[in-house]
Write a structure and sequence with these properties.
By secondary structure, the protein is α+β, with helices and mostly antiparallel strands. About 15% of the residues lie in helices and about 25% in strands. The protein starts with 6 loop residues before the first helix and ends with a strand.
Length: about 200
């Protein structure tokens, strides 16, 4: 006796075959050919020039390389780039560029030497802040005010670079018996010292 045609059975056969193929592919990807290197090491296939980098799926470049994105796009919209070696030296040419890390460098080569690609985007200008009758850069500088010990003498103001190990800028970076430190609402520091 012939069995009646069963549309459900016809529908599930291709799906079952697809599921079996999917399992075989997954099992094949976990075979013994996988790299047994340390998980913290850079991917060895990316240690050479022109290896793919960036994007969601590509690993970062190995030590001594940076990711060079097409059109200086910084990998926007999951674009990938290629690994290029860090330059050994750069010309002393001042052609400022904003890099993918948001920092402005002297030129594109200087950015590459720091391990980042140049960007077509503009770097955000650090807001300046008042320091007496002058303005200090909000990023990397602090204000010094020296109050003289002589009556009727004016307080002198100047800007100075923050110490290298003072990031973020906090009053703990400075200590001196005759100085006070204050931060404004934006975190800009003013060090006030009192002359004897």
């Amino acid at each position: 006796m012939a069995q009646p045609h069963c549309p459900e059975r016809t529908l599930y056969r291709p799906l079952r075959a697809l599921a079996i193929v999917g399992v075989l592919v997954l099992v094949g990807c976990t075979g013994d050919d996988a790299d047994d290197g340390d998980a913290g090491d850079d991917v060895s296939e990316n240690d050479g020039e022109l290896a793919t980098c960036g994007g969601l799926a590509a690993p970062p470049c190995g030590a001594g390389f940076y990711c060079d994105f097409p059109d200086d796009s910084c990998g926007v919209l999951d674009q990938t780039g290629v690994c290029r070696p860090l330059p050994d030296a750069c010309d002393d040419v001042f052609e400022p560029v904003c890099a993918c890390d948001g920092v402005e460098y002297e030129n594109a080569c200087s950015a590459a030497a720091a391990g980042v690609d140049a960007s077509t985007a503009e770097c955000a200008e650090a807001e300046s802040f008042a320091c007496g009758d002058t303005e200090c850069a909000g990023d990397g500088e602090y204000c010094t005010a020296v109050v003289p010990g002589i009556p009727d003498a004016e307080t002198s103001y100047s800007c100075a670079d923050l110490p290298d190990d003072c990031d973020p800028a906090i009053c703990d970076c400075f200590d001196g018996p005759a100085c006070d430190c204050a931060a404004d609402d934006d975190g800009n520091l003013t060090i006030t010292c009192y002359a004897p």
